[in-house]
## 1
Amino acid sequence: MNFSTMLSTMSAGMLRTGSIFALTLIGSLPLGMVVALLRKSHLPVVRGIIRAYISLMRGTPLMLQLIALYFGPYYLFGWSIRGWRFSAVIIGFILNYAAYFAEIYRGGIESIPAGQYEAAEVLGYTKTRTFMRIILPQVIKRIMPSVTNEVITLVKDTSLAFTLAYQEVFSLAKQISASQTSFMPFVIAGVFYFVANYLVEFGMGRVEKALDYYR
């Protein structure tokens, strides 16, 4: 198998890796904000549940979470898991990364001086308007470096989908390498991850520059 054939064979895996990455971001970024706000709830029960969720997601390996999410319905309830693999991968990644993003958001929100909330209240702003118009723009600017690091980590973590036998680019690289006795598939996969991370870093850097209006 020559280089072009390997690249063509692995292209499907690259698309699957890209879909895991994109869907995880689409789901985990907004969910993380919801979790962060619930983490600051005035209700002790809600705070306790959210803390437990964050602790569980951050305290156990993502690989273990994917396995539990995929096989759990069968072992706990006897449900069929046919056709559940891709959904389990996406849900597992979203739940895991939402916990990390939630703590990043919370740190950003808590870094805003309380005086800004008080000033907005004096000016007649509602809590929702204060958060959306005054607090959130500052939070986004402050957390961008941390969010960028998590997004870069996500690119590499997509390879953990192999745990559920989902054929993303790394899984295909291992299969082709074993069948062809060649290291080249791993080189192709490595270049793919490097380029993907470079694009993420470049894109996030442009976003940071666009937010330079705030000091």
## 2
Amino acid sequence: MSETKSGSSGVAAATKVVFPPAGSIPATRIVFGTDGWRAKIADEYNFVNVRRCAQAVAEYVVERGEQAKGIVIDYDRRFASEQFATAAAEVVLAHGIPIALASQALPTQMSSFEVVQRKAAAGIVITASHNPWTDNGFKIKSPTGAAAGPEMLTDIEARIAAGAGRAIETRPFADAEAAGMVERYDSFDAYVRFIRTNLDIDRLKAADIDLFVDPLYGSGSTWIPRILAGGKIRVKEIHSERNPYFGGVNPEPIPPNVDEALRTIASGHYDLGLLLDGDADRAGAADERGSFITTLQIYALLMYYLVEHRGLRAPVVKTVNETSMAERLGERYGVAVYEVPVGFKYVGPKMIETDAMMGGEESGGFGFGMHLPERDGIFADLMLLDLFLCEKEAGRWPASRAIAHLHEIAGPSSYRRVDLHFDRAIYPALKDRLLVELPQRAPKGLAGGPVVRTQNLDTNDGFKFFAADGSWLLIRFSGTEPLVRVYTEAASTAAVDANLVAGEAIVRGS
């Protein structure tokens, strides 16, 4: 059923539509995990549910009397993302809230940037980040530019649930745009001016090196080459075109998804590789040999860069699945290290609370106090580039030598993660059962020696086991996909392999 309202001009201003229609299947239960709500396109992820999410965000803003501040809307390169973004916009506009809409697919962090620059009430991003190409998602940004925190998300989830089956008003997009309620934006030029206040871009451009970039077909395509254009540095980028299939891999910048890039770097005489995920808020890297630099190494490298080359001593924030090198570097340089649950919805608020210089998570998301309290893969990659140039000036070149130096001062670290996929139908019951059973089936020892401590994660979604030598094994249930992640950090590759075998056996009950 629908009911069209007409304004004084006789132009249709809003259309009231009931979602879902009476007599249809029950409304989807929408829960925001560690990084937004994600689901399979044309199944649970559909226009009905996107409108329900947008309705809840709009209600949240209206209740706080902040509708005049507007809402920023961004989207990625996935299938129909621009159409989903328009559907969300039409709901927001029906509440009398002006919007700033990305003029094209932009990196997710540009929504954070625009929210901060515009002092907007909130941000909405249509993206499923690194999920399989069959998925799409809905992220929410707080007024600080950080990912919406638990309190904000709990409120919005409750509004979504309470509104199931109720009428949702939409305003035709063309009508709202004609009325001056819509502003299109492209953040590139303003973003470059912004990062120049914290990073010497001209110095990076002047570097006499060969740089390889793989954005994995995502919305960060062409950004790094454009930022570094016009100098001596030579930049080669692959996978720049839009491909919602992402070449058949998940657009997460880790092996095997980036194996093509690693092979090219190894055979193409490149000095460094920089990688991005599908919405460009996660960073990855490879050295001159095409060896993948783990996300834990990247965290430690960035922390080392800030304390050693920039002389900063503010706190850092890391998730429970991040590297123990952070504590060792913190002790060496007198820097406080705060640990939070997995997800930038915890990292960002903690960064703001502690005035941290940096925050990061195992998935490759890094934020910086001088920049944004949110992940930015492009800025993190440029910071890595600057680090390696600083190390080159110090005589530690090529990139592999700089990484070896890191381990000389931060200790050895080998790391790997295994994702164990399960059917969506059995996943909830499996998760509930294992969360009860895991403490009783904890390993007595790991490759690093006896297990000396077991930690129940604050979010009650997994357990972490610590060996006598400081290495660890983490078993955690994903908040965005039907899978169990087994992570481990140890002193050697052999120890990591042994710990992963033990972890998978625990999960599978073998």
